Amino acid sequence: MSDLYWLTDDQMARLVPYFPKSHGKPRVDDRRVLSGIVFVNRNGLRWCDAPSAYGPYKTLYNRWKRWGERGVFLRMMEGLAAAEAVPKTVMIDATYLKAHRTASSLRVKKGALVG
User: What sequence ranges are listed for the domain Insertion element IS402-like (predicted)?
Assistant: First the structure.
């Protein structure tokens, strides 16, 4: 299946700092499992329908469930969002703005005090 999704080396390097420490038995390939989790969620599949290239579907589900309960994915998203901070100045090109049709009812009447 050539439509499989695989995390790149750069993406993995950015995610590794958020992985929990492995205690005892080493984890199976993180790239394979995380790529499988992304693939299943992105395509709205059931875990048992995950392509075998990602490994056993039970491994995908267990990692998703355990890391989700421990807040690992939340920390990943927060960390990645903070790393790509929004610029302080945001410029908007007026050609892309559309006013809602009810915006005309918000006009200020002449002589009304605005403050």
Answer: 7-77
Q: What is the radius of gyration, based on Cα positions, of the chain?
A: 23
Q: pLDDT per residue over 61-85, tens digit each?
A: 999 999 999 999 999 888 887 766 6
> How many Å apart are CA 57 and CA 9, to the nearest integer?
23
Instruction: Report helix, strand or coil for 30.
Output: helix
Angstrom distance (rounded) from CA 31 to CA 95:
42
47 is a domain residue: yes
Residue 61 to residues 13, 26, 90, 97, 115: CA-CA distances in angstroms? 23, 17, 40, 42, 56
Domain count, the chain: 1
User: Could you tell me the residue range of the domain that residue 83 belongs to?
Assistant: 9-90
Read off the pTM.
Answer: 0.68
